[in-house]
DNA sequence: GCCGTTTTCGGCCCGACTGTTTTCAGTCG
């Protein structure tokens, strides 16, 4: 049983305990265990087998003797005594009821005991008949809201991709900012933490118009924004609404003095905050969205900035991407947080397309755009012939294209030597603008001649080895079209790793972030093979295509993989998507040293798998 | 059920909003 399934069963048990009105702290321990189990990079079932190391299991925070026994039972039998016991009292289908808005464990339990409601269909019927009305706190308004919630749930239990959510956040922010006296609008929540999908949008707004005595007017402005589809709630300083696409937006208007506390609070994650507040209490403080206060006299210790709050709790500042209660608080206390990777650490992008296949720009345009963004080298990797719909190259074209790429690279080198061309132009522009950290360029920009080759059924590439030998860098990718099962795709990639020309494994997961059922290729197996053969693994920054999750990135690092972050850009502006990729790398606690395209080109080329 | 440089027992996070209420329980983030 894999960790994800283990975590799901523990979490379900927690939900059943909630419906059963069990000890809330016992429930919390099941929830906590579920979360930590999900975050583990090694399969826990290997720790409990005959030659497993139970000590390692008990070393995981939140897992004690009882939980270890539960995990052992789950792995061995697929269930555990407590879960079975609860399932004789309640139905598994009731867990789905908890996902409806406004439905919590108490309500689910009440509906079951009063009306024997076990699932969403029965709930809908009962609500339509008006059976809910006699129950406490369930009037017409509650019933209407519930029916709407059921409808929404059936339509799409929707989450939004981070790049889409960011765009919506900007649109809404622009309109809010039109109100005079609003200075700062920051997206908080999972968007700020960089999760690859977000359920709703949290916008924190501050400025003179948000001070308590005048905030009502600004709230009115927000509550009447033209893009609101449905107003959900409206409080003294909070407005919630839906956009037409179903995305829920929560806007909070906050006084400047407590903005840091609010930002900290609403960025979450929930579990990070819980642990942080426990730490506050141990030190005689209490932490809320308004301030860190001393308990004995309510004196405000810190409130205006997040840094103050973390420092007052004797912690280094914790980047939002790390705030998942996965050991970051302990690491911050020991001053052992990693120096996370930033965009300026990236020196090369080894996966992009031009008009030669399905890209929109020329070799020169891609190179100039990369130079503009501070890169030192790129690889042009157009598609090979298997992907006919992209205009993929056959052997002859691939070789001719490589010659053009090298010619362009040489031209840039000549321009560089003559102190003209895009590298010097950028330098002079930055110098003139007084940009900090502006240095004279020292090495000519390099364009490597590459190809994004397809892996055939037998693991060979769809171009001849003679052709591959004439290119600088080979990205090997699996594209669909063979109608294979995930297991077969995994096998195909493993065979491809044995091909000595393969240097970079392109978008290895085939995963689409919002697909409900993840594509079940065996990623750890692929990563292990890549590590064994010295093949670099690409983290693809384009969230619309596929990439490695933060958990898989941690696995890649632990397995000793060479990791590369690429954009897979099909147009110059897509080079900026590197930011999406970097956020996931940061969430995986990776530093510049964990990647190879953070190195200067010579070191990078030396780190690639040697050519036969 | 977990956890411990104050503890192996007694703790375990905070506040706002909603609906149906005359003081609050439940849900949510």
UniProtKB/TrEMBL annotation:
Organism, scientific name: Granulicella cerasi
Protein's UniProt name: DNA polymerase beta
Main location group: cytoplasm
The entry's keywords: DNA damage, DNA repair, DNA replication, DNA synthesis, DNA-directed DNA polymerase, Methylation, Nucleotidyltransferase, Sodium, Transferase, Ubl conjugation
SUPFAM superfamilies per record: DNA polymerase beta, N-terminal domain-like, Nucleotidyltransferase, PHP domain-like
Cofactor needs: Mg(2+)
Span of domain Polymerase/histidinol phosphatase N-terminal: 348-457
InterPro entries: DNA-dir_DNA_pol_X (IPR002054), DNA_pol_lamdba_lyase_dom_sf (IPR027421), DNA_Pol_thumb_sf (IPR037160), DNA_pol_X (IPR022312), DNA_pol_X_beta-like (IPR002008), HHH_MUS81 (IPR010996), Hlx-hairpin-Hlx_DNA-bd_motif (IPR003583), NT_sf (IPR043519)
Sequence ranges assigned to domain Helix-hairpin-helix DNA-binding motif class in this UniProt record: 55-74, 95-114, 130-149
Domain DNA-directed DNA polymerase X per the UniProt entry, residue ranges: 1-324
Pfam families: DNA_pol_B_thumb, HHH_5, HHH_8, PHP
